[in-house]
Specification:
Elements: E1 4-9, H1 12-21, E2 25-29, H2 44-56, E3 60-65, H3 71-76, H4 78-88, E4 92-95, H5 98-107, E5 113-115, H6 124-133, E6 137-139, H7 146-156, E7 160-166, H8 178-183, E8 201-204, E9 207-208, E10 222-224, H9 229-235, E11 237-242, H10 249-268, H11 277-286, E12 292-293, H12 311-317, H13 326-337, E13 343-351, E14 356-363, E15 366-374, E16 376-377, H14 385-392, E17 400-409, E18 413-414, H15 417-436, E19 464-469, H16 472-480, E20 486-490, H17 499-512, E21 516-520, H18 534-543, E22 546-549, H19 552-560, E23 567-569, H20 578-587, E24 592-593, H21 600-604, E25 611-617, E26 620-624, H22 628-631, E27 641-645, E28 651-657, E29 662-666, E30 671-672, H23 677-682, E31 687-691, H24 697-707
Parallel strand pairs: 1-2, 1-11, 2-3, 3-4, 4-5, 5-6, 6-7, 7-11, 10-12, 13-17, 19-20, 19-31, 20-21, 21-22, 22-23, 24-25, 25-31
Antiparallel strand pairs: 7-10, 8-9, 8-27, 13-14, 14-15, 16-18, 25-30, 26-29, 27-28, 28-29
Helix pairs in contact: 1-2, 1-10, 5-20, 6-7, 6-19, 7-9, 10-11, 10-13, 16-24, 17-18
Length: 730
């Protein structure tokens, strides 16, 4: 199967440029619901024109609907937003939200759905799960290796799309709340402020471990994989995706052109594949951060992947002016922005005296015929074949030009130039309409209108109180607390060698205290790190009350084991709206966790009866495959906690999980909804949860006393943030 080169467009102008540069398909956002809200996304009429432009030139166009949608958006806006694009012939939508996936599948049955990289699909279990849910393509998490992608392809046969060039997030896509919590600009809503590109200082036990020349600890270099394209294709990647909807059209076109060149080279002469140095330099001249890396395809993490120095920022501080390669950008502008792209057509024009003019046009397998005015006998100078041909070939800004035009005439007649122009215009318009008709869809009228909003509140719900723990001290304090109904035990509590035995002992211990007990799975599951533990998990499932699941790979893993009814979805299995909530519940999930970015008003509009809500805890701001300690050159492969300080002195705990090889950056201040408990009670959530992460024994006890025993502190009250309960996100 021939591969696809997928290019970004942040505007209609950008879409035209990348198509001219050789893209097979383009992904672009509309006026709503795209993960690049600040791009020059086209409005409705321009988007409809863009769909036709792509199709006329034999390309595909994918619309990004890859944000999380609130109830009023999903049920009140999404349908009307998509209808015109669906009817025009949109080729696919890219989605993050499980509710959007479910909604589109039901309301737009013939529209292919691509599972966004925002879903953080990391393995075959998650890929299979989302395929069964209705996705026709999987956009892999950017952190995956070639081996992991190959495994997904081999075990699922999924159509795979993977990023090959451009900016990398520090965090797993869809698992980042950093911008959201610090400034209210949510990456899950297309408004990321990129706090990862700012300077930080790392400390361990009070000692600085980051160097003075390496302050940009969370800023990855841009990815460039043109040298390993053959490996990506051999691993099973079908669609090669370029990042860059926020960059200039010249950038997107320039990168697209180079990748087109080498993709064609590989497909025609794989044995001769070699990248020229001048092309690598051109990619660097277009955009780079301290050089390139090859992404995660050949390495899991490391300092060499990071732009810790930030040369551009250093030059700015030292007032060193760095000149962009203006000659390159001017050339690209002239080549891909200032030119028109026309498709070759064939035509036959018949001009016979005393008969109407007849024009036959053909484009690919589409043929049309139009009739013009009657050709009169010439009184003075009859029309010559050459003059007619020259006039007819003036196709202007239309999408067509004549590759071949045959003029049949007796050269005895006369027809005004205006009549010839009108004949040509009418013919080209009819040809364009006939060709595009194959893409048009009719949306069947349904007897039921799309639901505008759901309101399902019932009184008298008794809320349970749970706590999640990651250390033995936290576990012991929570078990002592009679007001706690259940505990989520992190995998960090148990050794790898005696994992199942220790988990079962913990479950028994919790049950003896009259508490439910759940195994809390890792924030990220990759590389088959739980393969071979299936029997252990089944045994644990017999005794434990369930599993707290954080990602689609874990959800798919448990579903494949027949254990989905044991699942409690954490906040990162987003149930942002009632459709996503229903989707997860229909899969068999016990309950979900309320997303952290909805405010109280939005939660009141949402069905929360089968959800629990986090009322205390240091929110996870980022989950990353990178390791700050390794970036600082001090990684000892031991799970530890270090501190990151920003420019304002705020300190963020970073916990590394070496067993599953990821790190979590926590907020500098815990969220505490102590004063809001009465309001939360009115939301009718099934349970509330306290999330303990970095707290020692004494801190854990203080929080339990506050939230469970309602003991007023004699000293100073802890400092809490309200998270998004008051403000929410745009």
């Amino acid at each position: 199967m021939k591969s696809e080169l997928l290019a970004p467009a942040g505007s209609y102008e950008g879409l035209q440029a990348v198509i001219k540069a050789g893209a097979d398909a383009v992904y672009i956002g509309g006026s709503l619901f795209g993960a690049r809200a600040y791009a020059k996304n086209p409005k409705k009429d321009e988007m409809l024109e863009a769909i036709d432009y792509a199709h006329l030139h034999g390309k595909k166009i994918y619309l990004t609907v890859n944000t999380l949608l609130k109830n009023q958006e999903l049920f009140g806006e999404l349908y009307d937003f998509l209808v015109p694009y669906y009817e025009q012939g949109l080729d696919a939508v890219i989605v993050q939200d499980l509710g959007v996936l479910s909604f589109v599948k039901k309301e737009f049955p013939n529209l292919p759905i691509h599972a966004s990289t925002q879903m953080a699909i990391t393995g075959p279990h998650g890929a299979r799960f989302i395929q069964e849910a209705g996705a026709s393509r999987i956009v892999t998490a950017r952190e995956l290796s070639l081996k992991e992608i190959q495994k997904i392809y081999r075990e699922t046969g999924a159509e795979i799309e993977s990023f090959v060039h451009g900016a990398l997030c520090y965090c797993y896509s869809g698992m980042c709340l950093f911008s959201s919590m610090l400034g209210g600009r949510s990456g899950n809503r297309g408004r990321c402020a990129q706090p990862c590109r700012l300077p930080y200082t790392a400390y361990e036990k009070g000692k600085q471990i980051s160097g003075k020349d390496g302050a940009y600890l969370l800023s990855p270099k841009d990815m460039c994989t043109v040298e390993i394209l053959p490996k990506l294709l051999e691993a099973g990647v079908y669609s090669l995706k370029i990042e860059g909807r926020m960059k200039r059209p010249e950038y997107a076109a320039g990168v697209t052109a180079i990748y087109r060149k080498y993709l064609d080279l590989y497909e025609k002469h794989p044995e001769a594949y070699q990248v020229e140095q001048e092309d690598l330099q051109e990619l660097l001249d277009l955009y780079q951060r301290d050089g390139f890396n090859r992404g995660y395809y050949e390495m899991h993490n490391g300092k060499s992947m990071m732009a810790v120095y930030n040369q551009k920022e250093q030059d700015r501080k030292q007032k060193i002016r760095t000149n962009r390669n203006e000659e390159l950008f001017q050339r690209l502008k002239k080549q891909y922005l200032d030119t028109k792209l026309q498709e070759g057509i064939t035509g036959t024009l018949v001009l016979c005296t005393d008969a109407p003019a007849v024009l036959d046009l053909s484009f690919q397998d589409v043929q049309v015929q139009v009739f013009g005015d009657v050709v009169e006998k010439a009184q003075k100078q009859p029309l010559t074949r050459e003059r007619v041909q020259k006039q007819m070939e003036k196709t202007g800004q239309t999408p067509f030009s004549f590759a071949q035009l045959e003029v049949i005439t007796d050269e005895a007649g006369f027809l005004p130039m205006q009549s010839l122009n009108e004949l040509r215009r009418t013919g080209l318009e009819k040809l364009e309409t006939a060709y595009l008709a194959q893409y048009r869809r009719n949306l069947p009228k349904t007897s039921e209108e799309v639901e505008t909003e759901k309101k399902k509140n019932c009184k008298g719900v008794t809320q349970k109180l749970y706590a999640s723990v990651e250390t033995r001290e936290q576990w012991e304090e929570v078990l002592k607390e009679p007001g706690i109904d259940g505990v989520y035990a992190g995998m960090s509590l148990f050794s790898e060698k005696a994992f199942s035995e220790e988990v079962l002992e913990a479950v028994e211990e919790a049950h003896k205290k009259g508490k439910e007990c759940y195994l809390m799975l890792p924030y990220m599951l990759r590389e088959g790190r739980m393969d071979g533990q299936e029997e252990e998990i089944r045994e644990i499932a017999k005794k434990a009350d369930g599993f707290l699941v954080r990602n689609l790979e874990e959800l798919g893993y448990l579903k494949d084991l027949g254990l989905i009814r044991k699942v409690v979805g954490d906040y990162s299995l987003y149930s942002f709206n009632d459709e996503s909530q229903s989707f997860l519940m229909n899969q068999g999930v016990q309950r979900t966790t309320v997303p952290l970015e909805l405010n109280g008003k939005e939660l009141r509009r949402k069905d929360c009866r089968d959800s629990e809500m986090i009322i205390y805890g240091y929110y996870p701001m980022m989950v990353s495959a990178q390791c700050v300690k390794k970036t600082c050159g001090t990684c000892d492969h031991q799970s530890k906690t270090i501190q990151l300080k920003d420019r304002y002195g705020s300190s963020f705990a970073v916990k590394s999980d070496c067993r599953f090889c990821y790190s979590v950056i926590y907020n500098s201040v815990p969220t505490g909804l102590l004063e809001e408990l009465e309001q939360i009670q009115a939301l009718n959530v099934a349970a509330v949860r306290m999330s303990f992460t970095c707290e020692n024994r004494e801190e854990t006890r203080k929080i339990l006393d506050l939230f469970v025993q309602k003991k007023k502190k004699t000293g100073k009250m802890p400092i809490f943030t309200k998270g998004h309960f008051k403000r929410g996100v745009e």
